[in-house]
Specification:
155 residues, mainly alpha, Four Helix Bundle (Hemerythrin (Met), subunit A), 6 helices, flat
Length: 155
């Protein structure tokens, strides 16, 4: 008999079950919204950057440094938004939610694809579409809980 068997010898094994992966109330689309807002903000900042005039090496270095920082934040936050969306989609939503929201998979698939597009591109259009998708997810999510929670943005 191995060590594992000895530990559990003469012990009653009980099965536990839960309807989700964590305690109720741990899911919220707000974190995806906050990250998507950062994506939108960084996209605007990148598009507003003006390259310095030719020959000014220090100004060019500062410009490139700022652009690189904005791009890094945009890509990081797009990935965070995607992770948060995928957690909601795969861990929170159940078949019963699909019955009342038949477009659920399409909404989440589109939002995840928009996160990827926002990482690859500098597109104000896609950043705004991502915010709209997150709002739709917010409304579906709170609807499943029978709550009317206002959607707001920080900017």
């Amino acid at each position: 008999m191995g060590m594992f068997e000895k530990i559990f010898e003469n012990k009653e094994i009980r099965t536990a079950s839960a309807h989700c992966d964590g305690p109720c109330g741990v899911y919220d689309p707000a974190s995806a919204r906050i990250s998507a807002e950062a994506v939108l903000s960084m996209t605007k900042k990148i598009l507003d950057l003006t390259p310095p005039s030719d020959g000014d090496a220090k100004a060019m270095a500062a410009y490139l440094n700022t652009a690189a920082r904005y791009i890094a934040i945009k890509e990081e936050q797009a990935q965070v938004a995607k992770d948060e969306i995928l957690i909601l989609w795969t861990d929170y939503f159940k078949p019963v939610h699909l019955e009342s929201n038949p477009n659920l998979h399409e909404v989440f698939w589109k939002a995840a694809k928009l996160c990827s597009a926002c990482k690859v591109e500098v597109s104000l259009e896609h950043a705004n579409e991502l915010m709209e998708s997150i709002e739709e997810i917010h409304n579906i999510f709170w609807g499943t809980k029978g709550r009317d929670v206002a959607y707001y943005t920080a900017s």
